[in-house]
Amino acid sequence: MGTEQLRSEELRSEYLRSEHLRSEQIRSEELRSEELGSEHLRSEHLRREHLRSEYLRSEQLRSEQLRSEQLRSEYLRSDHLRSEHLRSEQIRSEELRSEHLRSEHLRSEQLRSEHLRSENQISLAKMSI
């Protein structure tokens, strides 16, 4: 009976050792699974941070582009207003010049007319003498 008991103890010991190894393997797989889960979460977090960063960068670029377009539009509008103002001043200057020339022409015609009248009066006065 001693050998049967010894054999039974060996089998029991082998069974306990195999259960212990199986338990260790399960625990090891659980830890690996937790690590993978943690790694997945970390990877997901990094991916989301990257996407957020890309979104913020694209929003900043879009904002800068809009601002650039606004500045360009303001510049073009002010340039247009300035050229309209210059054109208006040029037209006004031409109108004043034309008015001045017309006035000078009328004055010249008036002086010529007065001169002719004066010559006619002198001629009439000479004839009546």
UniProtKB/TrEMBL annotation:
PANTHER family: ACROSOMAL PROTEIN SP-10 (PTHR17571:SF34), URINARY PROTEIN RUP /ACROSOMAL PROTEIN SP-10 (PTHR17571). This is Uncharacterized protein. InterPro entries: Acrosomal_SP-10-like. Residues 94-129 are annotated as: Disordered. Residues 94-118 have a biased composition (Basic and acidic residues).
